[in-house]
Design goal:
Blueprint: E1 7-13, H1 17-28, E2 35-42, H2 48-58, E3 62-67, H3 72-82, E4 87-90, E5 96-97, H4 101-109, E6 114-122, E7 128-131, E8 138-140, H5 143-150, E9 171-174, H6 175-183, H7 193-203, E10 208-219, H8 233-249, H9 254-269, H10 272-275, E11 287-288, E12 299-303, H11 307-319, E13 323-328, E14 355-358, H12 363-375, E15 383-384, E16 389-390
Amino acid sequence: MEKEPLISIIVPVYNVKNYLEECLESIIKQSYRNLEIIIVDDGSTDGSADLCDRYAKMDSRIAVIHQKNQGVAKARKKAVMRAAGTYIGFVDADDRISLDMIDYMLAHIGNCDVITVGCYCEEASGNFFEQTDTIQEGVYDSEEELEYFYSNMLAFQGRFEYGVWPYLVNKLFRTSLLQETLTGIDSSLIYAEDAEVVFQYLLRCKGVCITHKCMYYYRYRADSALRAVDDHFMSNLNGIYLALKQAFKKHPKREILMRQLQLFIIQRIYWITARMGFPEEIRMVSYAFPHSDLHMSDRIVLYGAGKVGVAYYRQIYFHKLVNMVLWVDRCWENYKASYMPISDPNQIKNCEYDYLVIAVKKKELADEIRRELISQGIEEEKILWRAPAIY
């Protein structure tokens, strides 16, 4: 790797004036100075475009592209194709990054084609929780290591859990390889375009570096495109499935990858009714998670894998209601062959958590479980149960 390679940072912008200045300040103040900062204003109407131009006048490393609104995928692709850096990183305009993030990534990427870092995720309340890849930290560059990596990157150990989070923003990519990847991708897809790019790129890598150091600050916004009602959700989901299926079928590990892709799609099927804006009373989940006073940053153990437990798990996982650190059930051995990550209740003593949520319908059973847990040394004040709301 050259001593001080040029790094291209791409920032797609669309009506984010309230957050944009903080984002750009975190980039221009990076301890690593040899940057090319490409801002793509995707037809903003709230004053974001003027702010971009103002920053370009202040810092010669910044170039601004103005275009009619075409969506974030096309905005990013345009910037990637004109990037001159050895590596490319992405920052969403409503997020920010640690001031030494680029330095850190360059120090650890070595000969790998990509490096990841963890994210600090900010709730609307202002609380933060950490999110990292599930695959262990390390460099995966041998045939054996890459086989393990590809076997776990979409669905870690065959579960509803990403091995590598399908975000562009917490990674540094080799520019030439990313340009090659994007050439064959349909940028008209508006759902999960990050996932298609990330996983198709990873298939081309000769080396991957995973780190869990949290350096990217991701902001959850109720008005973001990810949470907006999408009438085309099903057709877009089919589009991402067909695109990845075509790529995976050509790979030597096609059987493993296809199994993971199927789990990846199943995850999103449970989002359909919510993402299409259906009324809550007719959505898929039959039992609603009743602990609305808990936060995303609260670490919980979920106890129970019956209908109520599965309903809670789906809501927690797909809607990021809380930080579930463990899911247990008395009959955990019955679930070994399933996709569900259910463990022995004896594992509770080995993890750190804030609350234990009992996921059963009847109070009598909940009281029985509570007494059993207390007898095993679980602190009573940490044990929560409420009757589930029925959709």
